Amino acid sequence: MMRFLRMLGIAAAALTMSAQAQGDPNVFNFGVYFEPSGVDPHISTDAAATWMANNLYDTLVRYETTTLEDGTVVGTTDYGPHLAESWTVSEDGRTFVFQIRDGVPFHNGDILTADDVAFSLQRVLTLNFAPAQLLRTCITPESVSVSGPLEVTVELMTACPFFLSLLVQTPTGAIHNRAYVEAHGGVEAETINDHMRTNAMGTGPFTWGEWEPGVVYELLAFEDHWAGPPLLERVNFRFISDLASQYVLMQQGSLDAMYNPPIDILEQALQNPALRVLDQQTIGLQTLYMPNINPPFDDVRVRQAVQYALDQQEIADAATLGLATPARSAFPSLLPGFTGRHWVYERDLERSRELLAEAGYPDGFSTTISYNSGNAQREISAVVAQAQLAEVGIRAEVQAVAWPTFVEGFREGTMPMYVVSGLAAPVPDQFIDQYFATDSAGPGGNYSYFSNAEVDALTQQLAETIDPEERLAIMDEIQALLMEHLPAAFLYNAVLPYVVRDVIQDWVIYPSGDWFFNTVYKEQ
Q: What distance in Å separates the CA atoms of residue 450 and residue 435, rounded to the nearest whole number?
């Protein structure tokens, strides 16, 4: 009876969706269970905010694509010109001169100038949130100057081998409209501009449409985009927390895509000729965080005991249908500099119990494991980890938490344990700085609140080192320290599975996890 009522509810939800949106070949209906924290890329670190900003704003450089032998177009970690038509670099690697594309319109019709570009780089540094953390090791606001109507010069404090790799990322490199920002609250150091958090004024291929929290948010095509208008008129992100309901709507054609479905839906979708499953190996780790500022996880022996108690392969198989591989470092396996040679945490229940006893918990302890509601991978990971930890006396209650509360919890370090993954660019300096630097604790991206002076010193040394072999040696040493001091329990290399209707074409998935919708279309 309950199942029947549930199906009636799903059917009712489908009927309430606009008939025009369901059948319109120019509208892409995306089922989601999350919302962005905002649309100002310079203050945001959550994936949903970045995915929106990718389409609302442009950057000076952009990730490129390549075509495989079978004709499939895939994203790469290489980058090329975008708002910057070209640039030159001095022999010492410290002076970049960018030539800005002429005639690029913002969404309000203003034309992009070099002043907007300089202002945007200075703004992200002045705001000084997570997107600025590694950039500020290369430049200050005073490093950026307008050297011509369409020319910007950047003088680096030191040669930064990853400088352009930062600018390709929307949170760091997004170009804002100076006049619009200054007319709507301006820029105040380390302060969120509430207007810019909920309103966008970029040069990207889409503008920001309706945002009704808990219901829908949308991207609208910007017909005057400098590279040509998007092939879609609108992308609707429909908030539907129940993934089974999303899948029914997929089968009915009311939704065109869903993100990160559970195993049972992936299995069904693989057998459905009207659907395709896309999966992308990404630069990220599904991680069981334990904020190191909270007992008992302030004791490294407890954190090590947790890692020893976990069977990563079982968790990965259960959560990803075998698509993911177990973590073998605090680095994702696709991150440059990765090595698994320091991994020592094969499952060992006896060693786990010994460590708990040494830490003063011979009978274990009680705790909670949280995950964000609707994320099937994290839910399954939490549930399997719960059962495994119980074998050594760690009694964990699994809790689903709404996304806004979840974000607040991991930024503030208030949840005892929680499962989350991050998506990273192929820049090890940035990854280390964000996830493990003392200065990044909390909102900066170091959600484990890990602090280690040796790691901090090596991170700074890495940022100042250009020689490739020396950089690899430093990253090896950092990974050895992270394995010894273990900020969190590392589960598996993150994958991004999607289910899409077969009419959806040319959606390119990038290793960085970025979403760009300007090339996507629905086959007639």
A: 8
- Dmax (CA) for the chain in angstroms is 74
- DSSP for 401-459, written as a single string: E-HHHHHHHHHHT-SSEEEEE----S-HHHHHHHHH-GGGBGGGSBTT----HHHHHHH
Ordered DSSP codes for 170-224: HHHHPPP-HHHHHHTT---TT---HHHHH----SSSEEEEEEETTTEEEEEE-TT
**How many other C-beta atoms can be found within 10 angstroms of the C-beta atom of residue 205?**
27
Encoding tokens for residue 340?
A: 């698994």
Q: What is the mean pLDDT of residues 157-163?
A: 88
Query: When comparing pLDDT for 456 and 444, which is higher?
Result: 456
Q: What's the DSSP call for residue 238? A: E
Identity of residue 133: Q
Q: Which residues pair with 86 in a beta bridge?
A: 99
Average pLDDT, stretch 315-323?
A: 91
Give me the pLDDT at residue 441, please: 93
Burial of 1 (0-12, 13-18, 19+ CB in 10 A): exposed
pLDDT digits (tens, 9 = 90+) for 164-221: 999 999 999 999 999 999 999 999 999 999 999 999 999 999 999 999 999 999 999 9
Q: Could you tell me if residue 442 is left (phi over 0), alpha (psi between -120 and 50 degrees) or otherwise beta?
A: left
Structure-block tokens of residue 287 = 């991680």
Tally of CB atoms within 10 A around 103: 8
285 within 8 A of 359, measured Cβ to Cβ: no
For residue 208, the cross-strand partners are 219
Pair 497, 323: CB distance under 8 Å? yes
Residue with tokens 């680095």: 331
Strands 489-501 and 84-89: unpaired
- Inter-helix orientation angle 300-309/376-390, to 10°: 100
Q: 484: helix, coil or strand?
A: helix
Phi/psi-derived region of residue 513, left when phi > 0, alpha when psi is between -120 and 50, beta in every other case? left
The residue type of 172 is T
Peptide bond into 262 cis (omega under 30): no
**What is the model's pLDDT at position 352?**
98
Cα separation of 401 and 94, whole Å? Answer: 46
Do 334 and 493 contact (CB within 8 A), yes or no?
yes
The Cα 401–Cα 28 span in angstroms is 28
DSSP, residue by residue, 25-77: TTEEEEEES---S-S-GGG--SHHHHHHHHHH---SEEEEEEE-TTS-EEEEE
Report the distance separating Cα 325 and Cα 328, nearest Å.
Answer: 9
Residue 71: partners with Cβ closer than 8 Å, 6 or more residues away: none
What's the predicted TM-score (pTM) here?
A: 0.76
